[in-house]
Structures are given as structure tokens and as C-alpha cells.
Amino acid sequence: xxxxxxxxxxxxxxxxxxxxxxxxxxxxxxxxxxxxxxxxxxxxxxxxxxxxxxxxxxxxxxxxxxxxxxxxxxxxxxxxxxxxxxxxxxxxxxxxxxxxxxxxxxxxxxxxxxxxxxxxxxxxxxxxxxxxxxxxxxxxxxxxxxxxxxxxxxxxxxxxxxxxxxxxxxxxxxxxxxxxxxxxxxxxxxxxxxxxxxxxxxxxxxxxxxxxxxxxxxxxxxxxxxxxxxxxxxxxxxxxxxxxxxxxxxxxxxxxxxxxxxxxxxxxxxxxxxxxxxxxxxxxxxxxxxxxxxxxxxxxxxxxxxxxxxxxxxxxxxxxxxxxxxxxxxxxxxxxxxxxxxxxxxxxxxxxxxxxxxxxxxxxxxxxxxxxxxxxxxxxxxxxxxxxxxxxxxx
Length: 395
Prior knowledge:
Elements: E1 3-4, E2 13-14, H1 17-28, E3 33-34, E4 41-42, H2 45-55, H3 70-75, H4 86-91, H5 130-143, H6 162-176, H7 181-198, H8 200-203, H9 219-234, H10 251-266, H11 272-276, H12 285-308, H13 345-349, H14 353-359, H15 382-385
Antiparallel strand pairs: 1-2, 3-4
């Protein structure tokens, strides 16, 4: 099994996971190790030590003192040094050496007793509070029925990308309508905006000339970014309408949507044969079905979001920045959706083994990875769908 670099512009492969993690730390380029004799810089401390031994005859270099990053310190695990350290790179979270900074929005003594505390990286998995779990439950209860692109049955908060979990908590906070909850949601949303921007090198394939369908698809991160965009519209106090009577996007949000849509296009996520090619016949059939359905439902949610926002001011916004090659629009059209409709909503909505067994047809375990089902692609009915609402596509 080969371990592939998650950075969209890099196709490096390694046989061992630890070698991949060490490689990925080099993409960040946040820390350089400088030779004290010739001032030459290196990306790794062991490379510096070899340089000093071979070039300058130094037998042994005293390694610089290590400081554990915030995540490793909170988890009480060994930190490999950084930033970024290999553990934070592996989890796709921001790596910081600073002390954990908590933001407790409102500081209102009359507010809920379990105020949600947010730090500038992400919560450690073990620190998830009952209050946060409550907001995750509200996400699935109130928001998920309208935007069902995360598979609830296989969702495990302790195993998910922290950025996704936090984005879901934002929605749950906002939907709860509890005292001070919406202001907390906005504060957390602003913190996540910074995290998304800081990690752009990992997920943004829009500016990469090497991005292609064989690169990794960071689906949980893209799900989080889509939730982030949707919330940015939900929380607007008095959003202006475009000439098409749809809410307009702020330039920063439009730019984020543009990068997300362009990344999905360049990675080939809208093309059904690419979805099939990520699996082999020996993979567990139920997981193959869930994985393909999740990509299809995410694509349709992204399509719905693009249709929901005004395009009347698009040409004048920052999304036409020349650094994003290959496209000048964040619009998605039905003709772009080159895959069949999602299938079997009861099976997708199943959250228990009993519900799954009851809804699962026999053919769900016999997916033909060589059958592209091209005649059933949504794009084949593009002319009709462009004139209709898209909410039924989830059915």
C-alpha cells in the first residue's frame, strides 16, 4: 500500500506512513534550521546535523530544545518539534507553539453555564464537552435534513477532521437559538476563517498546475468549507440581494467558494469514473457505497449553494483574481454533474445496523466499478434541471 502526499500539487508516494508525514512537514516551510558556521538553511534538523558533520567537521551538534505544540501538549503526547509537527500535519490542523488561547464569547454571567471555549487551532478530541456534543446533535436534527451531505451513520466525532466538527458545531450553535449561542457561533466562525486560510496550502487545488484526479480528495475539509460558506450567508444581518433576487456573497466568501469549486473541478470530483477509480473490487462494498454517495451528495450540495447565491456581481468581485488559473467563475451547472443521482435515501439516512439492514437492497453489495452508468448522469438532463429547483436531487 502506497501513502500519497495530501498536498494537491505533489504526487510523492511512500511505502511507510512515517516517511509520508516527514515529507509533508516540508511543504509548510515554517521552520528553517540554520548552520551557525555558514548560515546555510535546511528544512530538517537531521539534515543540518549531517551538513555540519561532513562540511564543518562538527562531531555532534547539540539539538535545539524542543517545545511541544499546543495540540501535543494538550494531548500529553510526544511532539516531534516544529511548527508544524508531524502529528498536526497528519490531522490537518494548525500547529502552534503558543499557549492555548481561549475565546469565550460574551463573558456574560447570565449566559449558559457551559460556555463554549474555542482555541485558535482546534479542540483536542478528548476535550469534547457535553455542550459541544449537544450542538452536534442539533446539527443533525435541524440542519442535516436540509443539507444531508455528511453521512450520519458513520460519523464519529473523535475520528473526524477537527475543522469539520467545529464547522458543524457552528451550525448547531446558530440553530439552537439558546441565549448567546448565535454570538458564540459567529465568534467560532471567525476563528475557523483564519484556520481555513492558514491551511489553504493543504486543501486549495485551484492554483496548482499539477492538481489532477489522482491526487487525494480532502472530502472532510471540503465539507467543512462548504458549511463555512453556508453559515456566512445564514448569519448576515441584512444581506444585499443581487439583480436575480438572490443573496450576494461578500468578496472573501465568494473567493472561498471560487477556490472550492475550482479545486473540485481540477481534482475531477464531479466525474463518476474518477469516483469509481478510487476503489477496488476487494474493498468492503458497504464502505464503497457510502464513499461514493458522500462525494455525490457533497457535489450536489455545492451545486445547490452555487445556485442559491447571486451571480450578478460576480465579475466585479475578487474571485476573478488571475492567480486562479483555468476558470473565472464559481458557478456550477447541471452539465458539470457527470454522475448519477444519489440513491436510496433511507439507506443513506440509516443510523443503526437494523435500519441499514432494512433499507439495504441486494445490489448495494454488488457495485460494478467498471460500469460508469453514463446514461444516468445528471448532466444528461442538464437542460431540464437548469430550469428547476434542485432540492429533490437528494431524494
